[in-house]
Write a structure and sequence with these properties.
The protein has about 240 residues and is mainly β. It contains no helices and 17 strands. Helix content is about 0%, strand content about 60%.
Length: about 240
């Protein structure tokens, strides 16, 4: 799911349009998306290739929710430690803070890579994050978001991970929307196995359009990482739908 709630949580989640099926206080929805490149916090998860993703969600009127999301990925292609599938399991609780325009979300998510060859070394890719976030609706057109993500042992058993990100969402006319995001990721590094820590900043700007049950998104991504092509600037196009 890889997200900042709404546009940043997650994850996350390639922006599908939830068309919920309601049964009393319960809502169920599913989503599917295809994208020219799966980007997570500014870094390609597919070696700059397209990705197909989809998921299922449950939400209760109390504010509790849970879900599952999966995407094709391409880690370490051509090596013995490759992975081609990401599966995310998540749950949380969210709601509004009275009539202040503020809303909150408390998300717990487990990222799993079931076909990783762990015997090849490089550490276990699976990891957990706790992601609290806040959003503020300035008016009907403008909303602001702020998120923090903490992992006790980040991807590849690389030590503690801390992430902070913020963004602005604009609701435009004719069903168009725009978003602007920036985030900072810091990873401690694992002193036992040797990988050094690292940190970087990423940013993005995108425009989206809803047509019926379909969503179309065109987003520019970039980072301040200069030693790998998977973190270079790029424009990503995503088509999503739901039921």
């Amino acid at each position: 799911m890889k997200t900042l709630q709404k546009t940043l949580v997650a994850g996350a989640l390639l922006s599908a349009l939830p068309l919920a099926h309601a049964e009393g206080p319960h809502e169920f929805s599913a989503n599917v998306a295809v994208t020219t490149d799966y980007i997570f916090r500014g870094i390609s998860q597919t070696s700059e290739d397209p990705a197909l993703s989809g998921g299922f969600d449950y939400a209760h009127e109390s504010g509790f929710y849970a879900g599952f999301w999966a995407s094709s990925i391409e880690f370490n292609a051509g090596t013995s430690n490759t992975a081609s599938l990401e599966t995310d399991y998540y749950g949380g609780y969210g709601g509004d803070l009275g009539d202040t325009g503020l809303s909150y979300d408390l998300l717990a998510i487990y990222y799993a890579y079931p076909n990783q060859n762990e015997d090849a070394g490089g550490g276990d890719y699976d990891y957990f994050e706790f992601i609290p976030s806040l959003s503020y609706s300035v008016n009907d057109m403008v909303s602001l978001g702020l998120t923090y993500a903490y992992s006790p042992d980040f991807f590849g058993e690389d030590g503690t991970g801390n992430y902070i990100g913020g963004g602005v969402d604009l609701a435009l006319s004719q069903g168009f929307g725009a978003s602007f995001q920036v985030g900072y990721q810091d990873v401690e590094g694992d002193k036992t196995t040797g990988p050094a820590g690292f940190s970087y900043t990423h940013w993005s700007a995108g425009i989206s359009k809803e047509i019926g049950n379909f969503g179309f998104d065109l987003t520019y991504h970039d980072t301040d990482i200069d030693n790998t092509p998977i973190a270079d600037s790029r424009v990503v196009f995503t088509v999503s739908s739901s039921w």
